[in-house]
Amino acid sequence: MKLLVTGGAGYIGSVCAAHLLAAGHDVTVLDDLSTGHRDAVPDGAEFVEGEVGEASGDVLAAGFDGVLHFAARSLVGESVQHPERYWTGNVVASLRLLEAIRAHRTPRLVFSSTAATYGEPEQVPIREDAPARPTNPYGASKLAIDHAITSYADAHGLAAVSLRYFNVGGAHGRYGERHRTETHLIPIVLQVAAGQRESVQVYGEDWPTPDGTCIRDYVHVDDLASAHLLALAHATPGTHAIYNLGSGTGFSVREVIDACREVTGHPIPAVAAPRRDGDPAVLVASSDAISATLGWSRAHTGLHSIVADAWRFAQERLPV
Question: What fold is seen in the domain 2-168+218-245?
Answer without folding.
Answer: Rossmann fold (3.40.50)
